[in-house]
Design a protein that fits this description.
alpha+beta
Amino acid sequence: MNISEVITAVNSYTVKKMSSNLVNKNITDIEGILKKLILFYIREMESTYKNHSQFSRRKKLPYKLYLEHYHYIACIIGARFEKHGTIGTSQGFVDNYKTFGAVNSKLKLLGNVGARSPKKNKNGRFNIIGKCAEIKAAYQLNSKSKISQLKDIEFTNAYRPRTSQIIERCSTCKFVFGNV
């Protein structure tokens, strides 16, 4: 297993852990759980880095692992609708976007899912349509309780896991869910 596969495994494991069912939690409780999970994620990534570095030295490998920003999950957000809560991440894509018509129709107005968004973010980069943590959280909530109005979804702050800092929501999510 190469290091990219190890990092992908850590990201996938964390996504599964974060996507656990949060029933009857208010949005403040969900945000508190989210902050604890971010700390868990940082420890897992640091442990992966440390273990790989020790392994590289023991085996005298000619390379060393450097964790770059793109190895980490870019965004994590909590969401709540009615009595259901969930945590979404920007890791990967939703399997079937067409199952949630309200989100799918808004995404199609921006372009094809998986394509670059028409607007650059504040860092001068393009986001990928449909890869946002908010989109994934909304799909998870919709699978538990059908959502008719996107404005009824309550979101926590969005966080950058590698720094634990609150980040601004992207233009795609502001377009789909409003500037909440």
